[in-house]
């Protein structure tokens, strides 16, 4: 008579001790060889100028930019119409948040009615407001131009001062306005004018990564020869109006295109890299 056998319980092939962790080798399924390694980088892939050791602030590149601007915009001058340091000062104050074209339409009538600092100093801001209305923020601008004219009469004998510290004491005059007057009238290169065009294009050209006008000016003063501080601003302003506009810049016609890596280029013969800022 056959002997009955007890059924044997099936156990897992690999048993681990209580409290111990299974080995990574046992827990992780093996990958196919085709997935084990990351795909190799395609041959001929471009690298950004930054990664390939291209120095954006190298004197040779900066000089190349300046040479091309000289060829494209030779002999440029301030776009604000003026016949004296005082007229330039007033026109620059009015140009804040306003186009130079509009300022040039307003100033002939303004200077005809108030031809000297003395005449404007004797006026009230309310009298100037109707004339200045097309320039925007006309109430504040009226106070500034009257206040600046009075400051010139009371503190500087009716003459616009030719020193930065003195200019900055006048109402409505900040560093940008002072740089315009000192550079365009007195031909003193004590700083770089940073308006909206210089702000935008100097960042596109990666001459600065700053976003504040004061810091942008300091960066430009470090990389540009002082002898070019005045002309550079005039040339960049013209460039910003004609080609390197804020939206849809005309890159195909730009003399700086093949040394520019701005992220918002509309046409390019060079690779755009991520460090570029519009």
What is the CA-atom radius of gyration, in angstroms? 33 Å
Number of domains: 2
Number of helices: 13
Shape category:
elongated
Order of helices and strands: HHHHHHHHHHHHH
The span between the termini is 96 Å
Overview of the molecule:
- The protein has 2 domains: 56-75 and 189-278, Endonuclease Iii, domain 2 (Orthogonal Bundle), CATH 1.10.1670; 83-184, Orthogonal Bundle (Endonuclease III, domain 1).
- 45% of the residues lie in helices and 0% in strands.
- It has helices at residues 24-27, 33-36, 59-72, 85-94, 100-113, 117-121, 125-132, 138-156, 164-167, 175-184, 196-204, 213-223, 229-242.
- The termini are far apart.
- Helix 4 (85-94) runs antiparallel to helix 8, helix 4 runs antiparallel to helix 10 and helix 7 (125-132) crosses helix 8.
- The chain is built from 13 helices and no strands.
- It is elongated.
Secondary structure: elements and pairs:
Elements: H1 24-27, H2 33-36, H3 59-72, H4 85-94, H5 100-113, H6 117-121, H7 125-132, H8 138-156, H9 164-167, H10 175-184, H11 196-204, H12 213-223, H13 229-242
Helix pairs in contact: 4-8, 4-10, 7-8, 11-13
């Amino acid at each position: 008579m056959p002997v009955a056998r007890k059924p044997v319980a099936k156990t897992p092939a690999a048993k681990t001790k209580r409290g111990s962790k299974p080995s990574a080798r046992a827990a992780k399924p093996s990958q196919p060889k085709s997935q084990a390694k990351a795909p190799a980088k395609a041959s001929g892939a471009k690298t950004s100028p930054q990664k390939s050791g291209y120095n954006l602030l190298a004197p040779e590149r900066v000089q190349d930019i300046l040479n091309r601007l000289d060829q494209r915009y030779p002999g440029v001058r301030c776009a604000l119409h003026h016949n004296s340091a005082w007229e330039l000062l007033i026109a620059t104050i009015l140009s804040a948040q306003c186009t130079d074209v509009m300022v040039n339409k307003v100033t002939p009538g303004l200077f005809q009615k108030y031809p000297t600092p003395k005449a404007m100093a004797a006026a009230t801001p309310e009298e100037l407001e109707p004339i200045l209305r097309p320039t925007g923020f006309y109430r504040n601008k009226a106070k500034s131009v009257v206040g600046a004219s009075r400051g010139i009469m009371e503190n500087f004998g009716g003459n616009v001062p030719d020193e930065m510290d003195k200019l900055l004491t006048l109402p409505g005059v900040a560093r940008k306005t002072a740089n315009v007057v000192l550079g365009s009238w007195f031909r003193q290169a004590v700083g770089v004018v940073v308006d909206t065009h210089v702000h935008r294009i100097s960042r596109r050209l990666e001459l600065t990564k700053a976003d504040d006008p004061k810091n942008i000016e300091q960066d430009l003063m470090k990389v540009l020869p002082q002898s070019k501080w005045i002309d550079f601003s005039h040339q960049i302003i013209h460039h910003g109006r004609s080609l390197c506009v804020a939206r849809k810049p005309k890159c195909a016609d730009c003399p700086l295109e093949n040394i520019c890596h701005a992220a918002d280029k509309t046409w390019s013969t060079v690779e755009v890299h991520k460090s570029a800022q519009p």
